């Protein structure tokens, strides 16, 4: 108990000394980050489709950023997003089935989207 009181009185005395001496106030400026577009994910995006969802609705679950387009479905090139949606909707839902999409951004970077069908 004596040790605790000694520490408390010592800290209190140090605080009083700092207040009496009147230290200088340092001005702190805060830099706000600029808003930029988030970079594309490095790894593949995985879309896990719940059982009971119709295959025709699967293409609406794949979210593409502005400027992105699907260029291949299961490593087969497609001409447009409409052709990619048609290729996805012809798939049969089944246990362990999946659709592998390759998506390209406007700047040429590519990413993979794996759609798991149950």
What does this entry look like structurally?
The structure is a single chain. This protein has helices at 2-21, 58-61, 81-89; strands at 45-48, 69-73, 76-77, 97-104, 110-117. By secondary structure, it is of the alpha+beta class.
Oligomer: single chain
CATH architecture of the domain at 45-117: Roll
Strand content: 15-25%
Q: Helix/strand/pairing class, anyone?
A: alpha+beta
Count of separate DSSP helical elements: 3
Radius of gyration: 29 Å
Order of helices and strands: HEHEEHEE
Topology:
Blueprint lengths: L1 H20 L23 E4 L9 H4 L7 E5 L2 E2 L3 H9 L7 E8 L5 E8 L1
Parallel strand pairs: 1-5
Antiparallel strand pairs: 2-3, 2-4, 4-5
Short description:
The chain has 118 residues and is of the alpha+beta class. It contains three helices and five strands, in the order H-E-H-E-E-H-E-E. The protein has a domain of 73 residues: Pdz3 Domain (Roll).
What keyword list fits this structure?
alpha+beta, 3 helices, Pdz3 Domain, 28% helix, 118 residues, elongated, five-stranded mixed β-sheet
């Amino acid at each position: 108990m004596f040790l605790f009181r000694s520490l408390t009185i010592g800290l209190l005395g140090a605080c009083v000394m700092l207040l009496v001496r009147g230290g200088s106030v340092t001005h702190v400026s805060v830099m706000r980050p600029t808003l930029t577009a988030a970079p594309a994910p490095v790894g593949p995006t995985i879309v896990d489709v719940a059982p009971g969802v119709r295959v025709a609705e699967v293409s609406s679950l794949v979210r593409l950023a502005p400027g992105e387009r699907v260029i291949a479905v299961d490593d087969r090139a497609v001409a447009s997003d409409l052709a990619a949606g048609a290729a996805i909707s012809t798939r049969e839902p089944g246990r362990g089935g999946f659709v592998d999409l390759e998506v390209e951004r406007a700047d040429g970077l590519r990413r993979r989207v794996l759609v798991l069908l149950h």
